[in-house]
Amino acid sequence: MTDLPSGWLGAAESALRAAPPTRLLSTARSLLAAYLDARGVSLLLADYGLTLLQPVIRLPETGEAVPVRGEHPAGRAFSTQAAVVEVTTEPGMVTAHLPMTVRGDRLGVLSVHLPEPAKGTPGVLELAAFATAIGHELLVAERETDLYLLGRRRKRLTLAAEMQWQLLPGRGFTQEEYALGAHLEPAYAIGGDNFDWTSTDDHLTITVSDGRGAGIQAALLTNLAVSALRNARRAGISLADQAALADQAIYGEYAGALYSATLLLRFDLATGQVQVVDAGSPQLFRQRQDVVERIELDTQMPLGMFEETEYYEQSLAVEPGDRLVVVSSGVHQAQSRDGRFFGEDALRETIAATRSSSTHETARAVVDGLVQYYGSHDLKQDAAVVCMDWHGRPKSS
C-alpha cells in the first residue's frame, strides 16, 4: 500500500455520501483502488439469523455464504469485532477483513485485497474507519433501496417476519454507559416477539414485547403495541402511564381477545436506578460478578387484556459490571419435543458460561441453546433475547 495522501479518509467519506444508494459498493471499490491500490473489495452482509455472512457480487446477488463461527477470517472479524489481516498466497498482498458496525449494530464485514501496508497498523486503522463509514451509508441507503436488505437474505421472509424486522431499532446499540445486543428466532419466520429501545442524554428505555397469537395476527398486535408505547413515550409521560396508554390502545382494538405481554425498563444513566413495569411474561435475569439470578418482579396484567388497567412502577438498581438479560416466554417456557421445559436452570447456565462474551454473542448463545434443546431452528414459539452490559457513567473529575 502506498503512502496515503493527507485527508484521504475525509474525501472518501464525502464521496460515499454523494454516491447513489445503489452504488455504494462500486464507489468503495473505486475509492480504495485509487487511494490504496486495492485489487479487490468485497462486501459481506450478515444474514437475519446472524449465522452467515453473504458476499455481495452484484446487488442483490450474493456468493457462497461464510459462516460467522469458524476459522474463516471474515467470520472471525465479525465475531470478535476486530480487524483480521489475512496473509495471502500472492507475494506482497494481504486481505484485510474489517467489521462494519454502527454504534454497536453489526452489519457485516468489508474485505479489502491490497498490497501489504508498508507502515502496518495505521493503514489498517484508517481502513477500519472507512468500513464504519460504509456502514453508516448502508443504513441511510436502506431507506431508499431494497438492495441491501435483499443481500442479507438467504431465503424469503414470511410477511409477519418482514413486519417485525422493519419495526426493530437495530440488533445492537453501544453508548458510554452500556452495550446492548439482541437476537430474534426463528429469524425468517418471527411472528409476535419484538424489542425496542431508545436513548436520551439522561435515560435509556427498553421494552420487550411478547404478542399473543401467531403469524400476521401476532405481528399486527405487536406493531400496535410497540407503536403505542413509542407514541406514549414521546409524549414525555411516566413509564406506568406509557403502559396504561398502550393498554388502552390494544384493548380498544381487540377488546381483550388479544393482548401483549411486555416488560418495560427505564434506566437513569447517571445513577443506575431503573424503573420497571412488568406487564406479562418476559423475564429478567441479572449476572452480578459470578452470580446469575432471576429478578423477581410483581407481574401485572398484559397490555390490552382488560379495560383501563392501572399500572405501577417498581425500582431496582444496576451496578457497573452488571449484565442484564431479558427473555420472552418463547425462551423460558420453551419445551423440547418430548415435553421437557428449557427452564431457568438452563438459562442461568448459558448466561454464566458466556460471561466473557459480548452482549451479541450472549444473546445468540441463549437462542442457540434453545434451538439445540428443541432440536430444530423451526421453533414452536418465537424467541426474543436482549442482553445489556451496564458500565455506568464515569464520575466527572
The number of helical segments is 11
Quaternary class? single chain
What structural class should be given to the helix and strand makeup? alpha+beta
Write down how many β-strands occur, each being a DSSP E stretch of 2 or more residues: 18
- Could you name the ranges where pLDDT drops below 50 across 5 or more consecutive residues? none
**Main sheet: strands, sense, barrel:** 7 strands, antiparallel
Shape: globular
List the secondary-structure elements in sequence, H or E.
Answer: HHEEEEHEEEHHHEEEEHHEEEEEEHHHE
**Termini gap:** 43 Å
Average residue-wise pLDDT: 90
Assign a percent range to the helix content.
25-40%
- What integer value in Å does the Rg equal? 22 Å
Sheet-strand content, in percent, reads 25-35%
